[in-house]
Specification:
By secondary structure, the chain is of the alpha+beta class. It has nine helices and nine strands.
């Protein structure tokens, strides 16, 4: 990889010669501007406002525009003469935990490569020190005509540097958060947690630019003269007031289906419908109250039917019923005996006599 800057890391009294290499690259597709009428290329030329003549890059210098419009020329020699210790040095000023660096400050990323064999030893020393301390180094360096802030950390076996914005370059959050007071219920938070758990983690290496692939397909079809079928638009109902609980439930269900998980059949709640919050509030509660009242009335009737008062049945009726049952039993026994006698032609077996009665006889 081609280096874009040569210098050294200043680590106390230790100097480590390094080369700065871009750690990232852009894969976005760029377009040219053309004249729609004939397809001719549109180009920009740099023209001097005074003589209206086109100038080359070698003829262009730098200048600072004052408040009144006056141009103050600044040469490369002027900038090189500035008392800037970081002109060719990445000066480490502190070592801090990575959590103290606000991700909002992160800018471009670079790899730092040891420049020459003598730089290998101090380079490895700094790398291993960063690993063992589990900290990052905050440094100052100059690049492209300005002093910048950087963060050094270890990536695999390489020291990487992230350009950082200065703290005063981060805008305040005033006026960005919702102005109205919003209350989030525990049920909504639980469903949000369930959705997060269902989506789970992702292998960052599997993510890719779908838009870039679509543009490449479009360009290829245009070049071959084939017609490209327009993709179906996804209508997510933007601008509609929806039931947040229902939307979260449907999101969890859709995420599970996308991951190939089987839906839960046992005790599964019905599919939630997206309805307006106003309609949900009006319908909620009335049906529940009616159902509760109906259940209470039914329970009371059953209890009243089963309830009896002790002692209400007269004693005489109880005695009469017992006598009737006894008489019925005797009649049934006599009838059975006569039927058996007529069928066999024999007398019923004599009753056994007890030993006492035999002795007295």
């Amino acid at each position: 990889m081609r280096s874009i800057w040569n210098g050294a890391i200043s680590f106390g009294l230790v100097s480590i010669p390094i080369k700065l290499v871009n750690a990232t690259e852009s894969h976005s597709i760029s377009f040219r501007q053309i004249h729609v009428a004939d397809g001719g290329r549109i180009r920009y030329r740099k023209v001097c406002e005074l003589d209206e003549q086109e100038v080359t890059a070698a003829e262009i210098g730098k200048a600072y525009e004052d408040a009144d419009g006056t141009m103050i020329p600044i040469t490369d020699e002027d900038l090189a003469s500035l008392p800037l210790p970081t002109a060719k040095t990445i000066e480490i000023v502190a070592f801090v935990p990575a959590t103290e660096i606000d991700p909002l400050q992160m800018d471009a990323a670079y790899y730092l490569s040891a420049n020459g064999i003598p730089a290998a030893k101090p380079y490895t020393l700094l790398r291993e020190a960063l690993k063992r301390s589990q900290k990052v180094a905050v440094a100052k360096y100059a690049l492209r005509g300005r002093e910048r802030l950087g963060m050094l950390r270890v990536v695999d076996d390489v020291i990487a540097m992230h350009g950082l914005l200065w703290p005063d370059e981060i805008r305040a959050t005033d006026g960005v958060a919702p102005e109205s007071d919003v209350t989030v219920r525990d049920a909504e938070l639980d469903l949000a947690d369930a959705l997060m758990a269902t989506l789970g983690e992702v292998d960052m290496d599997t993510l890719h630019d779908d838009y870039r692939e679509a543009v490449e397909t479009l360009v290829a079809s245009k070049a071959s003269g084939e017609a490209l079928q327009p993709a179906a638009s996804d209508d997510h109902g933007g601008g509609k007031v929806i039931d947040l609980i229902a939307a979260l439930e449907n999101s969890v269900r859709a995420a599970k289906e996308a991951r190939g998980e089987e839906p839960e059949e046992a005790g599964r709640a019905p599919v939630a419908k997206v309805t307006s919050l106003a309609g949900r509030k009006k319908s909620g509660g009335t049906g529940a109250k009616k159902k509760a009242a109906s259940t209470a009335t039914s329970t009371g009737r059953k209890a009243a039917a089963k309830k009896t008062t002790p002692g209400r049945t007269p004693a005489k009726k109880t005695t009469a019923r017992s006598a009737t049952k006894s008489a019925t039993k005797k009649t049934t026994a006599n009838t059975a005996a006569k039927t058996a006698k007529s069928a066999t032609g024999t007398k019923p077996a004599a009753r056994k006599t007890s030993p006492k009665k035999r002795a007295s006889a």
